[in-house]
Design goal:
Elements: H1 5-14, H2 18-28, H3 33-42, H4 62-73, H5 78-82, H6 90-100, H7 109-116
Length: 117
């Protein structure tokens, strides 16, 4: 099916929510999300989100456990902890903390407020 690229680009420009418009454009023009993203990318209006390498099921090393314990004791949030472990998600950090018996701290700004006060 031939999708009118200029109309897709026009509709994308006019949309208020760029995140929500791509599936809607796909439905409107009878094609999938990937086709719409490819059209927008060709016209310099869309850049695909880079994929974060994941390590599903990768065992934790003793060094990682020690670092996790040390950083958690320093009061870092789960999001901050995850930035120290490339390829590990916040969920993976939370799961590991539970298995190690490390008390979880609130996420994001809530924790910062408690540390300041």
């Amino acid at each position: 099916m031939n999708v009118p690229e200029l109309e897709v680009v026009r509709d994308y420009r006019l949309a208020k929510s760029k995140k929500k418009i791509i599936p809607i454009l796909g439905q409107t023009y009878g094609c999938g999300r990937k086709k719409i993203e490819a059209i927008l990318e060709r016209h310099g209006m869309y850049t695909p989100k880079p994929k974060i390498p994941r390590t599903p099921g990768k065992p934790w090393s003793p060094e990682e456990d020690r670092l996790l314990l040390q950083l958690a004791q320093e009061g870092l949030t789960r999001e901050e902890l995850a930035s120290h472990f490339p390829g590990r998600t916040v969920e993976a950090i939370s799961t590991r903390m539970t298995k190690m018996g490390i008390k979880k701290r609130p996420t994001g700004g809530q924790d910062r407020e408690r540390r300041k006060g």
